[in-house]
# Entry
Amino acid sequence: MCFLLDQQGSDGSWGAPDGYGLVPALSAVEALLTELRRAQRPAADAVQYGLLVGAVTRGLAWLSGWLGEGSRNPFPDTIAAELIVPWLIGDINRQLGRLVSEPLPGLEAWSAHPPLPVPAEADEGVLEGIRSSVRAGHVLPDKLWHSLEVLGVDAAGAYNVRPVNGAVGGSPAATVAWQRTQGVPARTVDDVLSSTHYLEEVQRRGPGPVPGISPITSFERAWTISALATGRMDTPIPRELVDSLRQGLSDTGAPAAPGLPPDSDDTAGVLYALAKAGDQPSLDCLWGYEADSYFRCFMGERTPSTSTNAHILETLAVLNTADRTRRQNAAEKIAAWLRKNQEPDGKWWDKWHASPYYATACCALALDRSATLGINAVDEVDGAVRWVLDTQRADGSWGRWEGTDEETSYALHVLLATHTSGDKTALARAAARGCAFLLRQSGPGIDDRDAHLPPLWHDKDLYAPVAVIRAARLAALHLAATDPDVMAALPEDVPAPAWAAGT
# Structure
């Protein structure tokens, strides 16, 4: 509770701007309302109770305004938002309805308040359809295991759901929902013990917050290798790491971690990482995700992903283990789709990340590397470079809401790891200012304890995969430090990294 109270904004919200606060605010208010019921007892701490009432009141006021009639506020494109939002709103409305017969001191005014409305993007009928299907004894698709908590008491009917290495769908929330269900025939003592150990471990990592997704084994390893390759770093890849990535591949590809369903994004990332490690794995596991004009991330997705298609294009550019014609046709299809989805100012957006700098780096790098397949994307890459140059902040950083280490690193990848026909002098100066920002933040190494790493990656909420961000930053610094023009333009008050070109 202390974490939730500390994280509430002055306007009553939680989370990031532009719609990203909806799920965190609903989650926090639902949790605080539940805690108020527990706290209402003679021995309760009056000060703590008052703090909870104040936080709930401000949170409900913010939610009422955000969701109010005529509201055109953005709906988050985070994982399962279309299910999580109506589930949480339903729980909050039920708790508010109880105030009539079971009042809570300090919340009397909310007993007559209209129920919170459900946004059109979160059709309650979809959630009820899934619940009805589970109640009827149908198998719950493994894609939905990650969000098992939205089923509430109906989670007990999801008889096929089970923990893998203690985690249900790689989610602490889903694991708790699985543990709370009763009467599941397939449940074993070992599964219960392993899930308890998993929950204890994820809670032990920090003073309050629990990750939305854990672990992210294959994703974290593949993206780290990819980032170091982008930085042109000749880094030996441990054989154990390569073996773990290879073992995670199946006929349908690779998941982000054991217990999650395979998807084309992680599949492409693993294949690319293996290629960079000297392997030549088969591309056969990718073809099942191919659609008419692009590649799906997984079946039944709401929106396609630019970064996923960029990662597949990169993989097609480095692997020649497929029929040449099929590989070429797929690459040209993706390149055309990425061109179509580039914004007029040169950037891209993506459903896996809140920042356009991530999507733009993915797409620009992939299109640049597709030249090895005979694909001409010079105009698109130049457009991305121009947008990056035009959006640099006064302190040398880049970022959607504020300058960050992560987004500055992606911007430097675009400027220094692509072939562009733009003004090289302007590019070197901008890159030097970006490099200086990173060095002023936390120095030339990989220790990010003092770096600014706000959560920007999409799961059920925003999160920050620290090792991936750390690798992206290290790659950006290496690109800058091995470019003499960038080092020559580095501000005098910023010492060049010891491994800079010419030192």
Notes: DSSP finds 18 helices and two strands in the chain. The two ends are 51 Å apart (CA to CA). The mean pLDDT is 92. The longest helix spans residues 46-67.
